[in-house]
Amino acid sequence: MRIAVCDDQVEFQNIILANLDRYKNKFDLNVFTYNSGEELIEAVKNNCFYHTIFMDIQMNGINGIKTAEE
Fold it and tell me: Is 28 exposed, middle or buried (0-12, 13-18, 19+ CB in 10 A)?
């Protein structure tokens, strides 16, 4: 399963990553992190796909809602 974590605060990325780490033995997880909505949008435009995306709503630049709409 491919999972994206998009948050401009690394400490919150790390919390999500720690929680996902508990499931790595049970599931085949590939987790990718992005520090901005712009980074995630660029990755998707370059044919990256994700089964699940954990998205921060309030970010610098493009917020999470606009990123999801894109």
Answer: exposed
Calpha distance 64→54 (Å, rounded): 10
Residue 59, classified by CB atoms within 10 Å of its CB into exposed (0-12), middle (13-18) or buried (19+), is buried
CA 17 to chain centre: 10
The answer to whether 31 and 6 are in contact (CB under 8 A) is: no
Rounded to whole angstroms, the Cα distance separating 22 from 18 reads 7
pLDDT given at position 25: 86
pTM, two decimal places? 0.92
Question: Rounded distance, CA 29 to CA 1, Å?
Answer: 5
**Distance from the Cα of residue 3 to its chain's centroid:** 7
